[in-house]
Amino acid sequence: GAGVSQTPSNKVTEKGKYVELRCDPISGHTALYWYRQSLGQGPEFLIYFQGTGAADDSGLPNDRFFAVRPEGSVSTLKIQRTERGDSAVYLCASSPLGGSTEQFFGPGTRLTVL
Amino acid sequence: RKEVEQDPGPFNVPEGATVAFNCTYSNSASQSFFWYRQDCRKEPKLLMSVYSSGNEDGRFTAQLNRASQYISLLIRDSKLSDSATYLCVGGGGGGNKLTFGTGTQLKVEL
């Protein structure tokens, strides 16, 4: 079956611009997570959705970062006034219920801020 | 101090060797633990969950020691295809957000 998909696969932008990254979770998965992975590091948690609501946004680094999941399926991560330090791979994951169930990751969006 | 710490490697081993990775965690509230595998420029994929009783899946054995806050992964008879980065992961809380270590790079050579 279809896994988690993310678009675009690569995004190059200039410092100060606004970007949107999209995640399509596995159909029927209620839990959705965003992580960010910098070179040589493990993924770092950003935000977790259960259904439409953000249940935990403690990992968002600052108020330039925002994410939505209006219908409980597709999610969009939005970054305003991008900075060079935002360059990383942004990974989305979904799981059937949250809790201790396995998280399935998408291929990620590689964001480069020039 | 990072919540999950592991040696970044790389570990270069010959095919057929046994290799062990270790990981420590600092958050005693962590409830579940995993090893994920990540190939170069790919997404992480679950390798196996880790239990206090230890669990084995073919050539892979994982162990959790809650008293020492220590997690291990043993790979026997390593294959070229085992070359990847192995991420030690803790999960906890109601939503089970995952906390990843830096990853340990393994290179299996002929």
Summary, kept brief:
The complex is a heterodimer of chains A (114) and B (110). Chain A contains no helices and 11 strands.
Q: What is the average per-residue confidence, as pLDDT of chain B, rounded to a whole number?
A: 92
Distance between the termini of chain A: 37 Å
Most extensive interface between two protein chains, with residue counts:
A-B, 26 and 23 residues
Largest sheet of chain A: 7 strands, mixed
Provide the structure class of chain B.
Answer: mainly beta
Quaternary structure of the protein: heterodimer
How many runs of DSSP E, i.e. beta strands of chain A? 11
Radius of gyration of chain A: 13 Å
Radius of gyration of chain B (CA) equals 13 Å
| Beta strands of chain B, count | 11
Strand-residue proportion of chain B: over 45%
Mean pLDDT of chain A: 94
Topology pattern of chain B, helix = H, strand = E: EEEEEEEEEEE
What level of helicity do the residues of chain A show? under 10%
Broad shape of chain B: globular
Q: Can you give a write-up of this model?
A:
The complex is a heterodimer of chains A (114) and B (110). Helices cover 0% and strands 48% of the residues of chain A. Chain A has strands at residues 5-7, 10-13, 19-24, 31-37, 44-50, 53-56, 65-68, 75-79, 88-95, 104-105, 109-113. In chain A, strands 2, 4, 5, 6, 9, 10 and 11 form a seven-stranded mixed beta sheet that branches. In chain B, 0% of the residues lie in helices and 55% in strands. Chain B has strands at 4-6, 11-14, 19-25, 32-38, 45-50, 55-57, 60-65, 70-75, 84-92, 97-100, 104-109. In chain B, strands 2, 4, 5, 9, 10 and 11 form a six-stranded mixed beta sheet that branches. In chain B, strands 1-3-8-7-6 form a five-stranded antiparallel beta sheet, with no helix packed on it. The N and C termini of chain B lie far apart (37 Å). The relative contact order of chain B is 0.35. The model of chain B has no long low-confidence stretch (mean pLDDT 92).
